[in-house]
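Sample entry follows:

:::
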Amino acid sequence: MNRVVFTFLFSLLVPAGVGLPASNAFAANPSSFLAARSLLSASSSPGNAYFIGASVVTTAPVEGDLSAIGGSVITAAPVAGDELLIAGSIRSRAQVSGDFRAIGGSISVEKPIKGDLVALGFSVYDSSRTSGSVFITALNTTLTNGAVGPVTIYGNNVSLAGDFAGDVTVVAGGHLGVMASTTIHGKLSYEAPEKINLPASVTILGGIEYKNISYLPNAGTSRILSFVSVGFFLLVRILGALILAGLLAGLFPKLTQAVVEHAYKKRLRSIFLTILLGFAILVATPILLVVLMLTFVGIGIALLLFIAYALVVFLALIYAGILLGGLFVRRYIHRETTLWHDGVLGMLVLSIISLIPTIGLIVVFLLMFFAAGALLQIFFDFTFSGENTSELL
């Protein structure tokens, strides 16, 4: 297994020989391959070096390229070629004669880089004064010693200091700071939410180009986003209610029929009394819960009643839509059986009615009060009449 992993990493990191067969390339430039949990390289590598470990530390020069992968990588000896480091924490404390490339959480470059510098990480600290170009993408970036080549930085907070011989391009989502006595011989082009306040000692010979970027929406965009958010919330709520109505109507057809018949076959006086019963239960129960919560003994009872009350409110709302769909099919389609899609249709109509100001809420509450009263009557009858409650399912 270790050989398979080693071969895979080797194929990723080892550059192909240019103009030479692989055997001749490795014969001319012998390479070092080391893998350990805690790896300390204290002997010089005449060719390329490839290190893998949870902790990697190099204290001997590398005559070729250096590639290292680990949890923590520290290079404390010069590298004659390129350097490629991938780790959670990276510290380059020695000169690199070629290009420097790093991917990590925290990246610190302290000694000169003769080639290009490319870094991708959470935070990047560079005091190396790179001779080539600099390209950094990080949440927090700090350059303290300038650079010889052009500099491009993408990040949130960016801090610049030192002498920059070329152009500097910065895209900062947060704060861009240019320290005192900083000199930029080229042009400073930056995008940020607001303009920077340059100290009097800062010199920018190529001029400044600023473009405002803001990730905060304006009033029009905020209004559109609010409408979209509300619309999405309503859509999800309606879809959830439709699914629940269809499930309850399809899974419990007997109970659905009993609720619809309470509204379709009863007289107006009986319907009015059912609404009053549902109103009394839905309104009086919260008052009873508050009274019970005032006593230590009543807290447990109040908790049980609250669970039962929440269930009743939930069922009353769902069966209000099912009731509307059942009444519709009986009145206009002349079908006495209420199917699952009738519940979905009724809940859709109820959801649309609820969007009507004032009147819609009144209709929804009346249907909920009736559904709650009908459900309580049905459960009471089946509980105390001695009949089998499974007939409701």
